[in-house]
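pinned: reference chain
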Amino acid sequence: MIQNNPVMRRCISCRKTYDRKNLLKITKDHKQGIMFQKGMGRSAYICNSKKCYSDPKIKKKLQNALKTYLEAEFIDIFEKEIARHSMTIPIREYN
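pinned: its structure tokens
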């Protein structure tokens, strides 16, 4: 019987590896702009831990990972999306 391995991604803040389903995906699409949890293009992943999404350097880390400039209102939208995402998905770490 073939067992599928989970798709692993790394949090840009804490640099730990997690299953992709447990992370918040932020994608930069060249036509549609910044999207959460969908889309194809350059992506960055952030885990649910408060330490990671409240990191004071998270905006700079996202800008580097997505290779784009993020507007000031993006942080407000980001915080709302984190709150919604962290309520729905439990976190599970892999090493």
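why pinned: The chain has a mean pLDDT of 86. Helices lie at 50-53, 58-66, 73-88.
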